[in-house]
Description:
The chain has helices spanning 13-27, 35-42, 46-58, 88-105, 148-156, 159-170, 175-180, 183-196, 239-266; strands at residues 62-64, 71-73, 110-115, 118-124, 141-143, 199-202, 211-220, 223-233. By secondary structure, the chain is an alpha+beta fold. It folds into 2 domains: 13-77, Winged helix-like DNA-binding domain superfamily/Winged helix DNA-binding domain (Arc Repressor Mutant, subunit A, Orthogonal Bundle); 88-266, Beta-Lactamase (2-Layer Sandwich), CATH 3.30.450. The strands form 2 sheets. The chain has a 6-stranded antiparallel β-sheet, with helices on both faces. Strand 6 and strand 7 form a beta hairpin. Helix 4 packs antiparallel against helix 9 and helix 5 crosses helix 8. It is elongated.
Amino acid sequence: xxxxxxxxxxxxxGLSRGLAILHAINLSADGWASIAELSAKTGLHRTTVRRLLxxxxxxxxxxxxxxxxxxxxxxxxxxxxxxxxxxxxxxEIANPVLGxxxxxxxxxxxxxxxxxxxxxxxxxxxxxxxxxxxRAMIRQRMPVLFTSAGRAYLAFCGEEERREVLHLLVAGNxxxxxxxxxxxxxxxxxxxxxxxxxxxxxxxxxxxSKIAAIAMPVRHKGQVLASINVVFLxxxxxxxxxAARYLEPxxxxxxxxxxxxEERDTGKIVLPEPLPGARNISE
Length: 283
């Protein structure tokens, strides 16, 4: 019998239970939870919990530890929030700072966030920079390992997140996947970024072989939220010269955003800690 117009559909219990499992894992200590723990938290029978977990694992949303049979959320869970964006801090806090940065460096900048196995341009000054060579950069996707924005994010994000991103990259079938499979080279690259306090690229991305950039991560509450770059033509200057010219204003812009994020959350002015390896280039 078809429901009449305006009538509510019957509650889908299986969906509610699956969402309860995901919520319980998300709130569990260290991000891991056993079947017994999930059963206790959700009030569901262990057999039901196991069946739901097996389905979620098959779909790629959770993964199981072979050592102790516990479960945690998988990287694919991020896709559930692809249609939701918390843009307040970008539009109200980061956007004006990017404008100030443009006034100081003239070359364009992008604010990028991680989106699966790519960096997504969320805000940019390309359309305002007289030196811009790509006006339409909003929502453009860029490779993680071949761009300064991606390298800055990956070098300073949490170890678990970095491992999950690399796992996604290795699963690909492109040039970036081939590079990601060489873990020694990847770690050497990321260690260099950490040591110098900023990331750089010099045309490694085939589609933008004439472009170079430097970038730094934006961090908040112990996590990397985004990265901000300064983009320029390789023929205009080497990366070392760009760093000497623009790293100081780029650092100041990142620090200003991080400080304003702290002010928004606490109502207090908090001076952010320096990045490992960061230095004053005027010294």
